[in-house]
Write a sequence for this structure.
C-alpha cells in the first residue's frame, strides 16, 4: 500500500506561529516597502500585475527598485541588469551564513526556504538558530519566519501597483532609491566594514543623483562594496592579535 502523506501536527503549527511572531515586528516595513515598489510600477505606466509578479519571482525589493529606476530613465537593459546583480551580491553572504542553519534540512526544504528568504528573514533565522537545535522544529520555525513575510511583501506590492502612488510623485525615484540602501544595509550594521559600506553607498547615491540611467545606484553599490573590502573587521583583528597560542584561542 502507498504510504499515507504526513500530516502537519500541532507541534509544527506552534513552531510556524512562533516564527511568524518573531518576524511580525518587521512586517510593517515590508508593507511600506512593497507599497513603494508597487507605486513605482504604477508611476512607470506598466501593468499593475507586474508588481506582484516581480515580487513573487524576484523577491528582492532593492534590485526591483533599481531596475525600475534605470528603465524609467531610459537606461539600456544591460545597465539595469548589472545594477541588480551588484545589489544582490549580498545574497552570497546570506548563503554563507545560512548554510549551517540549513545543513540538516532535506533538499526540498532547502529549496523552498531559500526561495522565500529575504534580508529580514535571513537575519532572524541566523540570530535564532541556537534557540532551535532540533532541525525539524527549526525548519518549521523558519518557514513561519519567511513565508508570511514574503506573502506580506507580495500583497503590499500588489496594493501599491493597484492604488497608485502613495507618496508625492516628485519624491518617487529620488527619495525611494536612497531609502532602499538604508533598508537593505542597516540590518547588517554590526561591523566596521558594514557601517563604512552603508555610509559610502548612501553618500555616493545622493552625490551622484544627477547621473543618467540611474547609474548613481550602481556607483553607490560598487563604492560601498569596494570600500568595505579594504577595512578590517575589528572583531577579526582582535581575535588575530589577541595574546595566547592558537591552542588557547581555540579553547
Amino acid at each position: 500500500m502507498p504510504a499515507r502523506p504526513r500530516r502537519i501536527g500541532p507541534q509544527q503549527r506552534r513552531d510556524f506561529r512562533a516564527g511568524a511572531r518573531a518576524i511580525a515586528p518587521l512586517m510593517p516595513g515590508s508593507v511600506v516597502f512593497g507599497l513603494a515598489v508597487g507605486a513605482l510600477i504604477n508611476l512607470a505606466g506598466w501593468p499593475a500585475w507586474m508588481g506582484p509578479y516581480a515580487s513573487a519571482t524576484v523577491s528582492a525589493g532593492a534590485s526591483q527598485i533599481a531596475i525600475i529606476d534605470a528603465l524609467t530613465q531610459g537606461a539600456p537593459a544591460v545597465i539595469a541588469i548589472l545594477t541588480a546583480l551588484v545589489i544582490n551580491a549580498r545574497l552570497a553572504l546570506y548563503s554563507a551564513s545560512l548554510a549551517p542553519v540549513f545543513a540538516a534540512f532535506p533538499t526540498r526544504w532547502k529549496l523552498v526556504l531559500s526561495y522565500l528568504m529575504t534580508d529580514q528573514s535571513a537575519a532572524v533565522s541566523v540570530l535564532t538558530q541556537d534557540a532551535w537545535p532540533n532541525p525539524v522544529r527549526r525548519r518549521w520555525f523558519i518557514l513561519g519566519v519567511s513565508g508570511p513575510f514574503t506573502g506580506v511583501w507580495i500583497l503590499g506590492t500588489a496594493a501599491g501597483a493597484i492604488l497608485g502612488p502613495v507618496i508625492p510623485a516628485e519624491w518617487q525615484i529620488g527619495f525611494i532609491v536612497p531609502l532602499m540602501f538604508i533598508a537593505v544595509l542597516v540590518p547588517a550594521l554590526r561591523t566596521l566594514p558594514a557601517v563604512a559600506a552603508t555610509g559610502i553607498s548612501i553618500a555616493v547615491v545622493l552625490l551622484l543623483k544627477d547621473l543618467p540611467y540611474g547609474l548613481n545606484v550602481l556607483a553607490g553599490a560598487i563604492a560601498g562594496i569596494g570600500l568595505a573590502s579594504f577595512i578590517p573587521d575589528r572583531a577579526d583583528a582582535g581575535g588575530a592579535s589577541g595574546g595566547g597560542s592558537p591552542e588557547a584561542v581555540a579553547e
In short: The first helix runs from residue 10 to 23. Residues 235-251 have pLDDT under 50 and may be disordered. Residues 10-233 form one domain. The chain has one domain: 10-233.
